[in-house]
Design goal:
There is one protein chain. This protein is mainly α. 92% of the residues lie in helices and 0% in strands. The longest helix is centred in the middle third of the chain and has 37 residues, at 28-64. The termini are far apart. The model has no long low-confidence stretch (mean pLDDT 90).
């Protein structure tokens, strides 16, 4: 049990040492931004892969939906993607932009729920 605790404390100390090095060394801000961008790209790639796998596993169900429901579902996902891409601009625009962002995500959530509810009634 003690060795586990020592191992965790060592790992935390390593992370803190790396953070101080990035903070204090010249060019550390550029390195931190580059690493952050790489992690962002990996995260987005993971989301795309998850969406692809989910689509491939459920494509028969999706193609079994009516055209209107399928269009509503795809439109909701497109609206979510648009809202997420425009998040910083909409929140920086002031109160109206933030309310519009919330309304877009709410409308997309309602559309997904209505498609799910229609799917479950059959």
């Amino acid at each position: 049990m003690g060795s586990e605790r020592t191992k965790h404390l060592r790992n935390i100390a390593i992370i803190l040492a790396l953070a101080v090095a990035v903070w204090k060394l010249p060019g550390g801000g550029t390195t931190a931004a580059t690493i952050s961008n790489l992690f962002g790209i990996l995260f987005i790639a993971g989301l795309f892969f998850f969406g692809y796998r989910t689509y491939m596993e459920h494509r028969e169900t999706l193609h079994g939906l009516e055209d209107r429901q399928r269009g509503l579902l795809y439109g909701a996902f497109a609206l979510i993607a648009f809202a997420l891409v425009a998040t910083s601009r909409m929140w920086d625009a002031g109160g109206l932009g933030g309310l519009l962002w919330i309304a877009m995500l709410g409308a997309a959530g309602w559309a997904i729920y209505s498609v799910w509810r229609a799917y479950k009634t059959y």
